[in-house]
């Protein structure tokens, strides 16, 4: 027996800290349950479980320092455990499809990974407190639960930056303060502030009578999942349930949610020009505008869609593009009925994602930009083999090792997407579920890239419940792996991770 | 003035030679053969010993020194000498520095190390290369009066349109003065009827525009400016700074460096330059990258021999002009004779700069022509100067032969000197002075 080289006690003890604190967000739907007179057990039980497990794990005696392996283990375990704890209220509430544990875990994992793919097809069967819990876990998952944890866990002196890098897969976390916990706290405060702003805006529209039905519950719910680019909605027809003004208001908040938060921090602190000096941001803006314009044109030539005038067409196009490109997953229309061209444009947007260092998922524009630039560079060096031309991003040269990693990651993502499609197709055929290839591909992409709605049976106003249990389990895994960007989970399955 | 020079290498010796006639100069060097040579060659006191040793410095009279020049080949030694001098005396300290990192520290950290002036060899060399690159056919360019006046030396080839013209015919530019013609090592002060022949070198002084126009006229096939193709061989510090300075002026130079790590480093720091990783003598590479079409090739490799080789190779392939960095002073003339168009010796450049700093307040700026055949100096005219308040045709008679008034700047304006131009106190005057007349001239001014 080889000696174990991972100090798993460190990871578990820190996991204890995360679980312990999970009791706090669980108290939010508990308050609503008290007000509405709903059963309290669905929330009291997980609070007890998570507190007991958290405090218990914290008793592990071990040294404090955490290194790369411990960080990977901690990241993988945290997302998994929070996902499992998050499913407890759904099971205990026992309503509708969510009563089945596999469905509850799917829903919870879809929540914490900010995917937004839902099992629910009977929204009326669930209490407000359960629906709110879906929104809360998405908000927690938005910026990454570990970024939150770092800002709370003061004992994490060494290894905090490592954790943040491991979770967000950025090569170097730009520290805003000397202590990583300070940086994490600043970012979370900003995140909370933006969410509050979105809530205020939506609620004001509701109170003013511009957006009927936008009460405080809906304002909070949609603000949280817009800024988190997550996409759950307590409404069966998503944001389509609200007036155009509310739909328009959510567009900039989804856009901001998928913008790098360090950049937002500087912007909020008076450095107005900073985003425009950032090449990735310009790329992001150009893609969003370009895709929206293209989509508007595609919808204008489609007589079935362009029925409500230019404003409606532009709104339909912009909202769905921003929603899918930022990996949010809201919808204001059942885009299943759109033309194949329009649907394929939306499908292509699923592979993009917003900026690195934001709440977005998918491959992310930083990687695409570097892939494009590196390719252009490689074309140049084909003609001039001796030329040394670093790939530059906003003027800074990008390390060759980073470029290699990014190529590898992008390729790996596409391979996993292809394999996932295969699993969905084969398993659906096994259970006799009728599914087109495009539907299978879109469902695989929508879960792996944490988008949410797909096309066809898993469309924006439908649910993932028709898929077989095996497919749903596979999708749960895809959402999990996709959110923490493959590597932290993948390394756990290598021999060298556990042994020296 | 008591001047203490530490380091009697080429730079120290050249400064000592310049200062000895009018100052009390003491020279310290570790090598006795050097100090001996100086004792016999010049009117200076020498001390043999380590310049960072306090005993040696005291023996050399550091307490009474008014100026300390640290000019050894070692940056750290020079800094220590200046720091020691600053602690022991009130002397003005000048340190010769090779690497720009110390210059950056010194500039940013409020003139640290007890150094009053820092003279950076690599940067100065790169600047003088940069100045030559902009002007076709120029072999030396120096700025005066804060850049409002330029002195330039050109080599006249057979293709030049002004060959066989008189100076009067060739001087078609308003604010330009023909200061000298150098023919077979002899300096001729030209008058209007002097005929220019192929192989001459001419020294002109004037406004930067007129010097540029003159340069363009010499080589009408090639427009001067940023569309010139420049290839730099060697990513040394000099090569780096040349590329950087040219990039700032809008050129897109190519820089060829052999070492992969250094090439990558350069590529990251110089976004506007194209870095290539290759051996400078790889013929296939040179042909593939069309070095033959380069307007200027700069050789800044680590050895003189390699620089010569690359220059000749580039020349043979068809490059228009070659500039080589040459460390060994004896090679300068030799290399120019075998076909390097411009040979630049960093030590000469730095000695020039230090001499400039040591000049009395009146003389502000000096450029040496052909090492020592003549000087171009800039002075600020005060009321008791022979030049003040008189037309030039009168005052020139009171100056020795071999003096030419090249340009005048009044406040920020350029004034073209003509016979009837009256020089006023406060004017800056740029003069060309033959070697023989230097002492007499500076005294009269």
From TrEMBL, chain B:
PROSITE patterns: RCK_C, RCK_N. GO terms for molecular function: potassium ion transmembrane transporter activity. SUPFAM superfamilies: NAD(P)-binding Rossmann-fold domains, TrkA C-terminal domain-like. Part of a potassium transport system. InterPro entries: K_uptake_TrkA, NAD(P)-bd_dom_sf, RCK_C, RCK_C_sf, RCK_N, Trk_Ktr_HKT_K-transport. The lineage of its organism: Archaea, Methanobacteriati, Methanobacteriota, Stenosarchaea group, Halobacteria. It comes from the Archaea. It comes from Halonotius aquaticus. Residues 1-119, 227-344 form the RCK N-terminal domain. GO terms for cellular component: plasma membrane. It holds the Pfam family TrkA_C. The keyword Transport applies. Keywords: Ion transport, NAD, Potassium, Potassium transport, Transport. This is Trk system potassium transporter TrkA. The keyword Transport applies. Residues 139-220, 364-445 form the RCK C-terminal domain.
